[in-house]
Write a structure and sequence with these properties.
The structure is a single chain. The protein is an alpha+beta fold and 165 residues long. Helices cover 30% and strands 30% of the residues. The protein has helices at residues 2-25, 47-54, 57-66, 76-82, and strands at residues 40-44, 86-90, 102-105, 109-116, 119-128, 131-141, 151-156. The strands form two sheets. It has a four-stranded antiparallel sheet, covered by helices on one side. The longest helix has 24 residues, at 2-25. The termini are far apart. Mean pLDDT is 80; it is low at 17-28.
C-alpha cells in the first residue's frame, strides 16, 4: 500500500507542476492575431468598411502620433501593440458575435512589401480619392530569409517610395 500512495502523490505533483508551467507561460490558448493579448478587439458589420477607415486621413494622423512609441529592435508584435493595432471581427455587433471573419488593422498602414528577402517596409499614410500619400515608413530586418523574426531596423520619416502595384 505504501508504494501505491507514493506513486499517486508523485503523479499529482508532476501534473500540478505541469499545469502550473502551462499557466505561467500562458499556453492555454493564444489568439494568432493577438499573441500578446494586448490589442483592442471590435465587432463590425463589414470588414471592407473597417479597412477603408484604417486607411483614412484620421487613422494616419493617429498613427503618426503613435510612431514615437516604436523603437529600433522591436518585434512585429511589439510594433503592433505600440501602434495600437485593432483586431476586427465581422458580425452583427453584439459582444458575443466573434465567430465571423477576422482581420488585424494597424491604422494608417497602406501596404507592406519586401524589397529584398531580409528587409520589409511598412508604408504609412492615407488614401485620398485613390491617391496614396506616404508619410513615414517602418523598415524591418531579419537575420535569415527563412526566419519570421522581423525587428525594426529604422524609421524613415521622409520616404520616397510608394506601395508597389
Amino acid at each position: 500500500m505504501a508504494v501505491r500512495s507514493g506513486i499517486g502523490r508523485t503523479t499529482r505533483r508532476v501534473l500540478g507542476f505541469g499545469l502550473l508551467a502551462v499557466a505561467a507561460t500562458g499556453c492555454f490558448w493564444r489568439d494568432p492575431l493577438d499573441p500578446h493579448g494586448a490589442l483592442n478587439h471590435r465587432v463590425v458589420g463589414d470588414l471592407g468598411d473597417a479597412e477603408q477607415m484604417a486607411k483614412g486621413r484620421e487613422a494616419y494622423d493617429r498613427a503618426r502620433g503613435r510612431v514615437s512609441n516604436v523603437q529600433a529592435g522591436m518585434s512585429v508584435a511589439e510594433v503592433e501593440t505600440a501602434m495600437q493595432a485593432i483586431v476586427v471581427a465581422q458580425g452583427r455587433g453584439d459582444a458575443g458575435d466573434k465567430d465571423g471573419p477576422r482581420r488585424k488593422f494597424v491604422e494608417g498602414l497602406l501596404c507592406r512589401y519586401e524589397p529584398v528577402p531580409l528587409r520589409q517596409r511598412w508604408l504609412f499614410g492615407y488614401d485620398e480619392g485613390g491617391v496614396e500619400l506616404v508619410g513615414f515608413v517602418l523598415e524591418f530586418s531579419r537575420e535569415d530569409a527563412d526566419s519570421d523574426r522581423w525587428t525594426v531596423h529604422s524609421i524613415d520619416r521622409h520616404p520616397t517610395d510608394d506601395c508597389p502595384e
